[in-house]
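tool_call: predict_structure(chain=1)
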Amino acid sequence: MVKSLIGKANDFELIFEHVSGEEWQAATPPDAYGQYAIELWATDEAGNVSYMASMLYLVSRYTLQGYLIPAEYSGLVKTDELIAMLDSFGLAAAIAKLKEMKGGVQDGISKS
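tool_result:
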């Protein structure tokens, strides 16, 4: 079981707090709008630290919402378009749409 979760995104660190179940939250700098490559490390109850994942961290300037997206979807669409998808459809639906788009243009959203 994961006891703590930390991440590094460009020039800032993310310290996550456990909310419940598999849900974690972290505070970000107030002007961190845009897209960041983030690396996550988890510590278990025995104190073992391991690399967990590379993710794409996106922050919407419109909703002030942050999103973690698997790095494999990086570059499918422009950052602003991806954030608009996330704000409009939510995380699960946006990821489903990204999975469909892996081969090219889908629903009017172009590859960058």
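agent: Residues 105-112 have pLDDT under 50 and may be disordered. Proceeding to next step.
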